[in-house]
Amino acid sequence: MTESVIKFLDLSAQRARLEPGLSARLHTVLDHGAFVLGPEVAALEAALASFCGAAHCIGVSSGTDALQIAMMAEEIGPGDAVFLPAFTYTATAEVPLVLRATPIFVDVDPATFQIDLAHLRSRIQGVLAQGRLRPRAVIGVDLFGQPADWPGLASLAAEYGLFTLDDCAQSFGATLEGNRLGHAADATATSFFPSKPLGAYGDGGALFTESAERAALYRSLRSHGEGETRYDVLRTGMNGRLDTLQAAVLLAKLEAFPAELVRREAIAARYDERLADAVTVPARVANATSAWAIYAILLPNRAMRDQVQAGLRARDIPCAIYYPRPLHRQPAYLPHHDGTPLPVAEDLAERILALPIHPDLTDDQVDRVAHAVRASLT
Ligand SMILES: *Cc1c(COP(=O)(O)O)cnc(C)c1O
């Protein structure tokens, strides 16, 4: 008997579950022809806002553009310090730099991998003491599917007058204190990149806010800074709209999303059971549930991580390293870093390994992955 192929992400199995409804929605768009800001975009915005309990949702062209629009709306720019974790995807640091603001890299918690609040406070105080930059914003990243410490971030931000931006690209669908993420910060940005928990068939993203004023700015900024009509240009904006075809895909996927989140949680629990005595399994953020974008284990050192990665590859089991290099060590960002040591982010990059987790992974496949990890340790 040949064994099933284990994939890191299985969009074809997901599509098989969602047809024929998914194609029907795409054909509706092909027939009505409103490819830009068609009715599916507004329908999706309403569905996403009600899913996460946010007052306003604005569909945009990607998670990166969602971050950028949120920061443009605050007029963040030269002279502004934007605090963000060093252990995240590149886009989190890229956006402040595109706007000519200065990213200030903050270390992360060694257990949950989320931004370290004690270090954040010392970084804010360092910027104030130096007196060169104005502390303006903190981007809290909900890493790998789990929420950052939003109650802690919100009170620290209030103390220093910072704008809070939730980079929820990996964690839409996660909950904190019983609420879905989407209103933990002044603005929440998410991504519908195909590999995210709620993924489109191309690029897409969304912004959430409780503020009607911010929502109006986001709508204007995503369409070239337009005003009442398309031909009033009130501010410098961008072409940052969510595509109608992607909105149609997402409407179909959103129906299946709650059950997929339950399945991801069951897979994570099964990995825990089979691996917790052999490797460090993901620590859980308190009072939260995860969207399980990534299930990452920690090995004792770099050599063991590389050995397990090679062992999995030899057994045709996919795995990945998020992230092999913390952002302050990236060639593009190194010149913008003040040299502050970020030992946790650097250590995680050496020891972390992500195992497959997607809703179409079977229990048998999870067991095979876990078995391969254990077999690779010796
Ligand atoms: C994926 C991701 C983004 C960017 O989203 P795109 O839709 O690819 O632009 C931003 N931040 C984090 C943490 C991400 O994982």
Which fold name corresponds to the CATH topology of the largest domain?
Aspartate Aminotransferase, domain 2
Can you list the strand order of the major beta sheet? 1-9-8-5-4-2-3
Q: Give the termini separation.
A: 27 Å
Task: Please bin the fraction of helical residues.
Answer: 40-55%
Biggest pleated-sheet summary: 7 strands, mixed
Helix/strand/pairing category:
alpha/beta
Separate helix tally: 12
Order of helices and strands: HHHEHEHEHEHEEEEEHHEEHHEH
Mean pLDDT: 97
Low-confidence region ranges: none
Bound molecules: pyridoxal-5'-phosphate
Number of strands: 12
CATH class category name of the largest domain = Alpha Beta
**What best-fitting shape do the alpha-carbon axes yield?**
globular
CATH architecture of the largest domain: 3-Layer(aba) Sandwich
Strand-residue proportion:
5-15%
Number of domains: 2
Report Rg: 21 Å
CATH 4th-level superfamily of the largest domain: Type I PLP-dependent aspartate aminotransferase-like (Major domain)
Describe the protein.
With 378 residues, the chain is α/β, with parallel strands linked by helices. It folds into two domains: 11-252, Type I PLP-dependent aspartate aminotransferase-like (Major domain) (Aspartate Aminotransferase, domain 2); 256-376, Aspartate Aminotransferase, domain 1. It is built from twelve helices and twelve strands. The strands form three sheets. The protein has a seven-stranded mixed sheet with strand order 1-9-8-5-4-2-3, with helices on both faces. It has a three-stranded antiparallel sheet with strand order 7-6-10, with no helix packed on it. Helix 7 (150-160) links the parallel strand 4 and strand 5 (163-167). The longest helix has 32 residues, at 244-275. The two termini are 27 Å apart. The mean pLDDT is 97. The site of pyridoxal-5'-phosphate has 15 residues, from helix 4 and helix 5. Pyridoxal-5'-phosphate binds at residues 62-64, 88-89, 91-92, 141, 167, 169-170, 191, 193, 203, 205.
